[in-house]
Write a structure and sequence with these properties.
alpha+beta, 16 helices, 371 residues, binds guanosine-5'-triphosphate, 3 domains, DNA polymerase, domain 1, globular, single chain, Beta Polymerase, domain 2, binds manganese (II) ion
């Protein structure tokens, strides 16, 4: 391959788990555009397109410098024709007309508003949209029958659409820890998800709970949620029991990214000392608390490393880890275990480092998994 003076030829793996992807990077004008198209594809239930745009954006996030000309893209993986056209438009015109048209489109805006309600997925939003419902106000007027999750979503719509801060995540961590330790001393709580990757805000807070003596964690979650409920710390909770027993082929079926842990999707009522100031007390308008989405997952100790790796994200990083395992290594990875299909054996690990080693990958720390 011929190199000209201003051309950099990149050696970048095609799998997100082969790359270091920091939170802050140099190509946000391009990635914001590509991620909007990815989001729109997701809202149109077009999974292929969604992933393709996400992959393209992810590659640009991993670049050590800004893209200044099309030649800078030479040798990079995952940049399809469509993504390249978007990048070219931005380089030449400072923006992409396709992205702007999508952003302004009625359907994109309506689907975004409706799926922004906790408990509302693309399918439901699409059905409502076809019935002429475009936002929260329309939904309230239509007076449809909503499930308990959606009712919670409507009730706390504003709070749940406000980013959760790192400080709020830490405070909730202390509350969860207090509850867990009151019921099972020696249990361990780990903050995972986006905050573990170093994000400063999130749409929720994710925790793993385990106990070094395996088995002690059984039955813990309902007790913890009851403890919180009794102290008026919850606005919503739904426990999904673990499904180890029903699963004949457990644990090596990574076909779905849903796992079999016992977990709770909840909404916390987080007291905000700063909001309880004189002003809000006088006006009586804004409450002295904030509704915050919290996910708690209970993990048997021997699966902790796999659960931690599986719940830290990003979503694309996870997806590519599984794809790498299957396609390049003949292994099957999920949040419970790693199975070597050829040798027909499970590969144990007590740390994320060991899992990367089993997979023949360089270790990537959480804050470089922002693919
Ligand atoms: P924000 O919450 O938006 O800041 O981002 P996040 O990366 O924390 O996303 P989220 O809370 O949705 O999920 C955290 C991680 O857990 C992601 O990597 C998801 O892929 C993963 N995850 C979410 N739900 C499940 C699930 O049901 N099973 C498994 N195994 N992983 C999940
Ligand atoms: Mn999260
Ligand atoms: Mn979550």
């Amino acid at each position: 391959q011929r190199l000209t003076a201003c051309t950099v030829v990149h050696t970048m793996g095609a799998y997100a788990c082969q790359r270091k992807t920091p939170l802050e990077h140099h190509n946000t004008i391009f990635t914001d555009a590509l991620l909007l198209l990815a989001e729109n594809a997701e809202l149109c239930a077009n999974e292929g397109r969604n992933v393709a745009f996400k992959r393209a954006a992810s590659v640009l996030k991993a670049l050590p410098r800004p893209v200044r000309q099309m030649e800078d893209l030479q040798g990079l993986p995952c940049l399809g024709e469509h993504s390249q056209r978007v990048i070219k438009d931005i380089l030449e015109h400072g923006g992409s007309s396709e992205v702007e048209m999508t952003r302004q489109s009625e359907k994109y805006q309506a689907m975004k508003a409706l799926t922004g309600i906790f408990g509302v997925g693309v399918k439901t939003a699409e059905r409502w949209y076809r019935e002429g419902i475009q936002d929260l106000a329309d939904l309230v007027t239509a007076d449809l029958k909503l499930n308990r999750e959606q009712q919670t979503g409507v009730k706390y719509y504003d709070h749940l659409n406000m980013p959760v801060t790192e400080a709020e995540a830490r405070t909730i961590g202390q509350i969860v820890e207090k509850a867990v330790h009151a019921l099972l001393p020696g249990a361990e709580i780990t903050l995972t998800g986006g905050f573990r990757r170093g994000k400063k805000t999130g749409h929720d807070v994710d925790f793993l709970v385990t106990h070094p003596e395996e088995g002690r964690e059984e039955g813990l979650l309902p007790k913890v949620m009851g403890w919180l409920e009794a102290r008026d710390l919850l606005l919503y909770q739904k426990i999904n029991k673990n499904s180890y027993l029903e699963a004949k082929e457990w644990p090596a079926r990574p076909s779905s990214n849903m796992d079999r842990f016992e977990r709770c999707f909840s909404v916390f009522k987080l007291e905000c000392p700063w909001a309880a100031s004189e002003k809000s007390n006088q006006s009586g308008e804004s409450p002295s608390w904030k509704a915050v989405r919290v996910d708690i997952v209970v993990v048997p100790f021997s699966q902790l490393a796999f659960a931690l790796l599986g719940w830290t994200g990003s979503q694309l990083f996870e997806r590519d880890l599984r794809r790498w395992a299957a396609q390049e290594k003949g292994m099957s990875l999920n949040s419970h275990a790693l199975y070597d299909t050829k040798r027909k054996q499970y590969l144990r690990a007590s740390s994320e480092e060991e899992i990367f080693a089993h997979l023949g990958l360089e270790y990537i720390p959480p804050w470089e998994r922002n693919a």
